[in-house]
Amino acid sequence: MRSCNLTHSLVLALCLTGLASARTLTRRDATFDWMNLTASTNLTLSPCYDIFQCARLTVPLQYSNASAGEAEIALVVLPANVSHDDPAYLGPLLFNPGGPGGSGVDAVVENAPVFQAVLGANFDVVGFDPRGVGHSTPALAFFESPAEALAFFAPYPLDANESASSLGRIVASAHLLDDLARARGGAIAESVSTPAVARDMLAITRAFGREKLSYYGVSYGSVLGATFAAMFPDNVGRLAIDGVANAHEWYQGDYFTKDSLTDADAALEDIYAACTAAGPPACPIFERTPALVRARVDRLVARVRAAPVPVFNASAAPPFAVADAALVVGQLLNVVGAPYGGARPFAEAVVALERGDGAPMVAGSTQALLAGLDTCAAASVPFAVGFIDVEAPIICGDSVVDTVKTLEEAGKEYEAMLEISDLATAWYPTTQGPCTGWTIRAKDRMNGSFETNTSFPLLIIGNTHDPRTPIANAHNMSSGFAGSVVLQQNSTGHTSQAGFSACTALALNAYFNNGTLPAPGTVCQTEDEIFGGATDSALRTRGLKRRDSGWPRGLRRAGL
Ligand SMILES: *[C@@H]1O[C@H](CO)[C@@H](O)[C@H](O)[C@H]1NC(C)=O
Ligand SMILES: *[C@@H]1O[C@H](CO)[C@@H](O)[C@H](O)[C@H]1NC(C)=O
Ligand SMILES: *[C@@H]1O[C@H](CO)[C@@H](O)[C@H](O)[C@H]1NC(C)=O
Ligand SMILES: *[C@@H]1O[C@H](CO)[C@@H](O)[C@H](O)[C@H]1NC(C)=O
Ligand SMILES: *[C@@H]1O[C@H](CO)[C@@H](O)[C@H](O)[C@H]1NC(C)=O
Ligand SMILES: *[C@@H]1O[C@H](CO)[C@@H](O)[C@H](O)[C@H]1NC(C)=O
Ligand SMILES: *[C@@H]1O[C@H](CO)[C@@H](O)[C@H](O)[C@H]1NC(C)=O
Ligand SMILES: *[C@@H]1O[C@H](CO)[C@@H](O)[C@H](O)[C@H]1NC(C)=O
Ligand SMILES: *[C@@H]1O[C@H](CO)[C@@H](O)[C@H](O)[C@H]1NC(C)=O
Ligand SMILES: *[C@@H]1O[C@H](CO)[C@@H](O)[C@H](O)[C@H]1NC(C)=O
Ligand SMILES: *[C@@H]1O[C@H](CO)[C@@H](O)[C@H](O)[C@H]1NC(C)=O
């Protein structure tokens, strides 16, 4: 299923993603077919993607019900540089790129040299597609065709303030997504919980003949890591989480409304301040003070809210788009997560739109990707977009409390979010909104405590201003996991990977290879500058939505 490229592109839209899921799989091996791999409960590895080994691991579809059937987890291994019987071999190291719904297979295939340089060459680096996702089967895929998915998403408001009926439409769509899932994917929809994925991680580790997990998880991957540590505290080998969500709130179904945006405005201010400091031409929307830069962007948002701009491009598919407030705020929300690579192309797109040219703003946007669904005619079915259709079953289904809301209750929840940041207009529709109609509860539930002694202390990483996972969450989770240490990376953006810090990279390397934790209170500076350096034209042509990770750029510069 899902041969359409857009399935992967749209993973960009996922809400809590770090580095690698923000990239399309460019090294897809056309001569390799996952379905040709025999799934098995032991690890039967076959060569794939040039230098990797692949396997499909059979696990229970529901750990709580042995008669519910099986699932097969797709995993890719970047082999360690030492043999398994070498005393220096450190076992498998699992990675999750976030989302939820991001493909760990794609992430590891795409970033293998980076992982080897930062995490160490004595591990087998393992990327796996969490159950329901990517190459794992059965798939969370509710649409019978891309055209049907387009019909569902075309009227879906990506800006809850777009019109008086936007919020109502979000709530109505949430109920429809639930109906679709019940009609076409009930068993898989109730089987994709984070606790079930945590159990899969133990199964993968055991398939390598080990009892203790080594794991690095960013963004949503922090919820997965914390869940594992809570459920299996005695099976923690090395566990680092980065760009940390508040897992207590996650399971109460209110993380996104309560405090995910806490530092979003501070992150935005960093970008505006960097613009003023960089001056023209490095920052194309330069004004004398950060407040004036902000006013300039806000003015554009207000202008296109009242008067959306038509964008016609005869060679694009489809050849038409409209640049409106939802588009600009959506792109702003992306840029605030990836300011080091994204701020300059965004500023250039602002200038173009001020002149009446909306094409650069449209490039790479969620709107453009959704509109392009009809170019997926050859996609196999059932079809998943990899947007809220994959996120909602995981985010909403994880909640131990009912998330269904009346329109009035949804309005209150949305207003509370707006009080934290105006970026909520674009954040609500892609995070909490879809839960307002979701009735399906996960079968495998969270079981354990986030206050526990783990068999090895956790490394917990947070940025000074992370717009989706404020650093307060890192401290909150750390207070529960005995002996864990918070490393603060003094940068802006979502997860430490948004900007490069040699200090953070070395700390990760020392933790995984030597078991060394940084001293409590460690602050790592970043070597990246927002608006610093030359325009990355490659990034620009790839579109704003591509969050260029700080890691590959930083390692290239550092010669690693
Ligand atoms: C899958 O297996 C079949 C049967 O062994 C083989 O003919 C086909 O070439 C394989 N496809 C790929 C892409 O490996
Ligand atoms: C692994 O599983 C396969 C298929 O289930 C089986 O043929 C093989 O003997 C197993 N290998 C080991 C070492 O258990
Ligand atoms: C377990 O799964 C089977 C097959 O779907 C189902 O018939 C049965 O009711 C389930 N049992 C429980 C306790 O949910
Ligand atoms: C691991 O082995 C590969 C291939 O032999 C080599 O290119 C790479 O530099 C090695 N990495 C480390 C960290 O030793
Ligand atoms: C028009 O679309 C084509 C195809 O997507 C793209 O390569 C080109 O850059 C676009 N033109 C402008 C002005 O954005
Ligand atoms: C969104 O709409 C509400 C009223 O519906 C209004 O109070 C709020 O200021 C608007 N916010 C933004 C950022 O447009
Ligand atoms: C929760 O974990 C405990 C200890 O591992 C176990 O005894 C219990 O059965 C688990 N409960 C559920 C619902 O999985
Ligand atoms: C962790 O271990 C310490 C020392 O053994 C003990 O005092 C404490 O109660 C334990 N904490 C938890 C949450 O189990
Ligand atoms: C962590 O967050 C939860 C949920 O917001 C809160 O109840 C708890 O008091 C926090 N713990 C600490 C130590 O701040
Ligand atoms: C973080 O970096 C800023 C400059 O970018 C600096 O002013 C500030 O002191 C740094 N904070 C810490 C805690 O190192
Ligand atoms: C490795 O660990 C030892 C003992 O904990 C420590 O003394 C040493 O500094 C560590 N080395 C590195 C490179 O972190």
Automatic annotation (TrEMBL):
<dbReference type="InterPro" id="IPR051601">
    <property type="entry name" value="Serine_prot/Carboxylest_S33"/>
</dbReference>
<dbReference type="Pfam" id="PF08386">
    <property type="entry name" value="Abhydrolase_4"/>
</dbReference>
<comment type="similarity">
    <text>Belongs to the peptidase S33 family.</text>
</comment>
<keyword id="KW-0732">Signal</keyword>
<keyword id="KW-0378">Hydrolase</keyword>
<feature type="domain" description="AB hydrolase-1">
    <location>
        <begin position="92"/>
        <end position="255"/>
    </location>
</feature>
<dbReference type="GO" id="GO:0016787">
    <property type="term" value="F:hydrolase activity"/>
</dbReference>
<feature type="signal peptide">
    <location>
        <begin position="1"/>
        <end position="22"/>
    </location>
</feature>
<dbReference type="InterPro" id="IPR029058">
    <property type="entry name" value="AB_hydrolase_fold"/>
</dbReference>
<feature type="domain" description="Peptidase S33 tripeptidyl aminopeptidase-like C-terminal">
    <location>
        <begin position="426"/>
        <end position="524"/>
    </location>
</feature>
<dbReference type="Pfam" id="PF00561">
    <property type="entry name" value="Abhydrolase_1"/>
</dbReference>
<protein>
    <submittedName>
        <fullName>Alpha/beta hydrolase domain-containing protein</fullName>
    </submittedName>
</protein>
<dbReference type="InterPro" id="IPR000073">
    <property type="entry name" value="AB_hydrolase_1"/>
</dbReference>
<dbReference type="InterPro" id="IPR013595">
    <property type="entry name" value="Pept_S33_TAP-like_C"/>
</dbReference>
